[in-house]
What does this fold into?
Amino acid sequence: MSRYELFIAYVVTADDGYYFPDNYNVDEKDGVTVTRDSASQVTVSGMPYYNVSITLPAATAKTQAAMPSAVFTATGSDTGKLTDVDSGMQYSLDKGATWKNINGSSAELTGLTSSTEIQIIKKGGATATGSDIQHITLSQAQTPTASFAATGTDSGTLNGVTSGMQYQIDNGAWNDISGESAVLTGLSKGSVIHVRTKGGGTVLFSRPQDITLEQAEKPTAAFTATDANTGTLSGVTTGMKYRIGDGGWNEISSNEKISLNDLSACTISVMQRGGEKLDSETQTIQVTKPNAPAASVQNCINGNDGKLTGVDDTMEYRISGEESWIAIVGSEVPGLASGSYEVRYKANGTALASAPQTVTIGSYAAQLTKSNNDVSYYDSLIDAVKAAKDNSGSTVKLLQNIKVKAYSLVIEGCRNPFTIDLNGKTLSTDSSDEIPGNLVFYLKNNDASLTLINSAST
It folds into this structure.
C-alpha cells in the first residue's frame, strides 16, 4: 500500500462456504490493523507510515451441520409431537415447499395424514452449512368397526372394541378402553360416539368411527281397569318392557295385551327397548282408585220395593256375597228386597273399581196415614202408635208380622181416636205371667177409642 491518504479502511468478506473464526488474529503493522467484524467480514484500517504490505490468513471452510435425529410421536388422528429438536431447526410438511421454524425443544404438529412426510433440517449459520434433511414417514391405524347396544334411555355398551382403542362422547375427553367392551353413560338422542384405534410413534391414531345415537319412540300403551285390582295393558309390542311402581322391569315378548293383577292406585311405566337406539323415554300411566261411594237406601214397604238412592251411572251394585255386579242406570235402583247390598264405582279407564260400600235395605214395621192422607213410615210399631196418638183420625197399618214385649204398647191419656190396621199381619208379644196372659195393648185413662181392623177381634 502507498501512503498517500491520511486514513485507510478496507472491508474484506469471506467467500461463500467460508468464515473468519473467533480467533482470527492479524498483528498490527506500520499503523495498519486488521479487525474481525463478524464471521463473514474483517476490516483493514489505519494510517500507514509508508508503504505497508499485510497478508491476511485464509478464511476457514464451513462444516456441515449434523442431520437432526428428531423423534415423532403421534398424539391423535392428525396430530403429533416432534422432540429431540432445538430452535436452530426447521420442519416442512409439504416436501420442502415451505419451512417452519422450531422454537424450543419440541414442536406440536397438526393437519397430518398418513401420506404426510415430515422433513427436518438443521439451519446453516455463520460457521456451518445447513444439514442434510431428516425424513419421517407416517402411517395411520385402522378405523374401528365397533357396535353400540343400548341398556337404557341414557346408557349403553360399546362392543367390538379392544384395549388399544379410545372413545369420546361428542366433544368430551378421549377415554381409554380397557377390554372388549365399554360401558357408556350420560348419553342422549343425537349424541355422537367417536371410536378410534390408538397410534404411537410414527403411526397416527385412526380416523374416528362416528356413531350417532337415535332413540326409540316413546310407547303409547293404554291401561284399562277391569275390576277393583285388575286391568289390562294394551298397545304393547315385542321389545317393550313395563313395571308397576318402583318394582322390577318385565320384558314384553308379544303384541298381545297383558293382564295385570293385585293392583292398587299406582304408576305403570312402559318403555321401548331400542337395541342400537337408546331406549325410549318412559311412558307413565297413572292408575287411580276412588273412595267408596256414599249411597243411601229406602226400606221396603211391601216386600220388594226397597231402593238404592244417591247413586249414578258411574256405579254398580250387587247383593252381598254374590259374584256379579249390576250396572246402575239413573239416580236410584228400585224394586229391591230387604237385605245387604254392596255399591261401588265401576272400573273405568285408568280408574280401578272402588272399594265397596255396604248398605242394608230394611222393611218398615208400620205405616201411618193421617186424616189428610199424608203418609209416613216407621221402623217400629211403637213409634207409629206414638205418632198416631197425636194425630186424630189417623190409621197405623202393620207392614210385617211384629212381635213386641208385653205392656210395651202403652196408650195412656189418649184424646184422639185412631185405628190400627193389622193388614193381615200377626201382632204378638212374648209370654208373660201377667193376667190375662199375652197382653199387647195396655190402655189407661183414654177418652178416645182405639179401633183394630183386619183382625179377629176389635
User: Anything to note?
Assistant: The longest helix spans residues 381-389. The chain has six domains: 8-61, 71-140, 147-212, 222-287, 296-361, 366-453.
